[in-house]
Amino acid sequence: MSKPEPSRQATQAPRDAYHHGALREALIAAAETVLAERGLEGFSLREVARRSGVSPAAPAHHFGDAQGLLVAVATLAFDGLSAALKAGDQRGGPDPVAQLREQGLGYVDFALQHPGRFGLMFRCEGYKDEALERSGRAAFGVLEDGMRRLYGLPAGANLSPQQFQALLMVWSVVHGFAHLALAGQFDDLLPASERAASLRATLAGMLELQLQALRPAPRRKPSPAK
To answer: CA geometry: angle at 76 spanning 60 and 58, to 5°?
Structure first.
């Protein structure tokens, strides 16, 4: 006995179940999954649509083209990174070294929790979009503000060339650490049951050493006149 064919209404249910806003979020989530699994080179709107259960034309309706969807994902990524860095500031309390250390830990946590977003956000230099550029500058600005506090500078002050080099050095450490962790380069060095805690403790120690070395020495009080 042959099985009855599903009704047209049943076959259309997945795509019709989305409300306008929910579909946009579903497409962004599917795009992140594709990016995490295949990278930017393997990304396609058709695959995003397939995973979202909608027609291939649906992503274009919301984002225009593949670049439009990637810009949306990258913008959310920088916004999320800004939030992670600011949360690190809060955890660090009043000490600028602790603030920057916690920023670094938050940076790597964000990368590990959102590998699709993280893998995309620094590969969008050719995408001319005001919202994306604004979000990118805001995220970098949180790190800049942390370095200003470390050096006792007022908000908005220019960093000296040496101070800017220090900023890039700290950023390079956490960015490189994140990529190594995502690539599984630490997996054979640490037991799986302790890996997350050990990675966090290792990075925290590295940043503490680096930042304490960068912290300006306290000014000596002038000796009282004899």
So the answer is: 15
Contact (Cβ atoms closer than 8 angstroms) between residue 167 and residue 159: yes
Structure tokens at 65: 């083209």
Amino acid (1-letter code) at residue 126:
G
- State both tokens at 100: 């920057």
Domains along the sequence of the chain with CATH: 16-64 (1.10.10.60), 70-214 (1.10.357.10)
Q: In Å, how far are 28, 42, 60, 139, 219 from 33, measured between CA atoms?
A: 9, 11, 18, 23, 51
Nearest alpha-carbon partner for 136 in 120, 157, 122: 122
- Kindly give the residue spans of alpha helices, DSSP state H, lying in 17-129: 20-38, 45-52, 58-63, 66-92, 96-113, 115-121
Q: What is the DSSP string of 77-102?
A: HHHHHHHHHHHHHHHHTT-HHHHHHH
Q: Please list the rounded mean pLDDT of every run of 10 residues in the chain (226 residues).
A: 41 44 88 92 92 88 90 95 97 97 97 93 85 95 97 95 97 96 89 85 96 85 60
Element (H, E) at 163: helix 161-182
